[in-house]
Known about the structure:
By secondary structure, the protein is of the alpha/beta class.
Amino acid sequence: xxxxxxxxxxxVATLILNRPQVRNAFDKDMIDELTRxxxxxxxxxxxxxxVLEGEGESFCAGADLNWMRSMAKFNRVExxxxxxxxxxxxxxLADMPCPVLSVVQGxxxxxxxxxxxxxxxxLAQEKTQFCFSEVRLGIAPAVISSxxxxxxxxxxxxxxxxxxxxxxxxxxxxxxxxxxxxxxKEIKExxxxxxxxxxxxxxxxxxxxxxxxxxIPKMENPRKTTTELIASLRVSPEGQEGLTAxxxxxxxxxxxxxx
Length: 259
């Protein structure tokens, strides 16, 4: 049985982690499947948003302990190769050109927080429990660290990486890992509302804006990069259509196609 399920409906892809019997903990096969899926989805130019969810009571409990136990028998070179594949999975999600919306519940532990951090927006059910649990197992949250550090303050990294405290969605929102939390029914409504918002916007403009956000921390010449981007978008077919539709008080073509 596949470790993931994917469905695409009206330019919205939903990827569901599908190992509920182990709280969707990932092993080698699941990591390989996810990396391939993220790569394939990134090549779909019509995709407007990717929704990432977990089947069952928990989003993801991190790494499968049986898989981790087997890795203890591998030598250092084999462990490096395996860890690189894990990093590549998170990187493939972070590099997704369209927006990524994660919806989490139950347990979000260890490496699962790498999936959360690599997403653009995360919604959580109100009783969700989060934990950077690695130090409890005598290891470190190393592979996910760069993805988490892009969203979480240094002070919070020191506290939660080193204590392995369990924290809830309210704290996760304060830290920047979660953007909203509520009951299960309300979270579904919020998810649908956000997806609808994505579909209302110029598809190429959304992708360009996401790419811009990724560039900001390492931008060497902000004046040149940002002015050239807006100039290119203004004269692009989509930019021309959006501006013209606004002035003519009509829907742009990407909304008309949804009617």
